[in-house]
What we know:
With 186 residues, the chain is mostly helical. The chain has helices at residues 2-26, 41-81, 90-113, 119-148, 156-185.
Amino acid sequence: MTKVATAAFMVETALAWAGLWMWEFVRPTPVPEGEAGPESPALAVFALPVLLPLLAAASLCFVCTFVLPTTVLARQAGTRWGGAGAWWWVPPASAVVTAFVVAVVGAATGLAHGGAAAPAVHLWWWLGLTAATVPVALVTRHSHLRGAAGREPLRARTVLGAGCGGVAALFTGVGLVVAALDAVFG
Length: 186
């Protein structure tokens, strides 16, 4: 379950990175002549072997902090109040787990630095972490339910391969459409 969740979060991160990369093409910043900018493929080739292990470690920390407690809480809530195994318990459980973590980290940071951040900062962190947790928790829940039903659960390499392939296909298609529109309309 942890491997599938980590793979799902890595795919979610790849989707976010690809979106930011495409945004860089839409809103380019001027790069001085002769320097390799952020869109340089050479920079990506050298940075990728360093970033992938760091991304895997960060994904595992995210999964252990947010996704696994969310899936456990959703399963317990579904068992207690009906609808065990239903997908609709995941978003509220994610909201509760992320609110707890944001509150604890916000209180600890406020005590350590002698002042609390504005409530809007905590709200944005809570919304962002909840939005990042829900899709990964739903994939993890689906894999668990497949295993409980006697079917083969999802494999991490399948989630990672199909997910990253889908991200690559999506943004290749978007890039081709944008290039075609640019060629036609200038």
